[in-house]
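hiii, so i know i said id send this last week but things got crazy w the move. better late than never?? heres the sequnce for the chain we talked about at the cafe, plus the structure i predicted for it. fair warning i was half asleep when i ran it
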Amino acid sequence: MAKKVWFINQYITSPSLCGQTHRHFALANHLKHNNSVTLFTGSYSHIHQNISNNEVNDENGIKIINLKILKYSSSIFRILNLFHFALKLRFFNYKKLEKPDVIVISTMSLFPLLLIKFFKKKFEDVKIVHEIRDIWPLTPLELAGYSKSHPFIKLLSYCEKLGYNNADFFVSNLANAHNHVYQVVPHRKHIPFEWISNGFDESGSQEELSIKVENNIPKSKFLIGYAGTIGKANCMEVVVRAFNSLQNSNLHLCLIGYGDQEGYLKSISGSNITFLGKIPKPQVQSFLEKMDACILSWKKIELYKFGISPNKLFDYLNASKPVIMCADIENTIIHKSNCGWVVPAEDADTLSKVLYSVSNMENSELEKYGERGYDYLKNNFLFKQLAEKYQKAVIDVL
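okay and structure toks below
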């Protein structure tokens, strides 16, 4: 039976709103065939700006509620932006919509969880799914060193527990997130959990690289590519230091993306590292196709034992490139598909040896690694498959 499903996440984008796709829009594109799907998003964040001035939009049979919220340029106003979205949700005129059967509250942000009891009271018999896409406040505790006694951390902890204590179902793109949930609320181990990873959206368009970017990619080098945010969590300093020790080799690192660590990393980078800046999403695959292998890196912290699901990894796999990952994480997609190499986290010496070894492999062997990753992606992580899993494992059982 068709159900009315709402997804709530203030970072949702769509091709018509922002020119990009997003996990929930990609899922909705498939779920809409069996359900009535509504997406609730915010008009502005540090990663997107939805351009529609209409509060209620329809795109390819998907209803999108674009709540106009505060723009910001500082951390204080960013926090106010998060509260503003939750406030707009609380006072939205829900009479415009049909009563939902399932509401998926997807974090981060945690603040919409403040409304979980409101939704249950307002919509009799509605089922609430808490979708955990980032584990907060554990993330700022481990990555930024915040104290558990910090007032903002205490507020986030309250929101987290509110979600864990009142949801009817848990979903996460992190394979082991349930271990964290049941640590926080051990009395709720009877509440079901389903792992639904991030994936690759085949409906996305592809464009050629700009001439400027293409001309800055070195020729006749063994190219290692990175495509993503350049921040502390991405731990690219280890990768840069490994490349600095390989300046006499044929290896060259090319990075696309931006982040708060970009300036610092440029200042310590050798001549075999090129920062190409941010490029449009449709050009990412064209960039990756020019690489010989791809890389990503994680810090050595406990947070990642609950799982990872980086969008860049699925981009790498779709480009049929072997993958080198720096991480102390077991049983990853790279392990399962044998599409590359997992190197200990924050170990530049070992990474440099692996990089040098990979650069001396035969092209035919490298292609086999890339093909295994591509096949594993196509068999498991396309959004059509992930939506089918969401339908059967979550929506149909609620």
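btw The mean pLDDT is 94. thought thatd interest u
miss u guys!!
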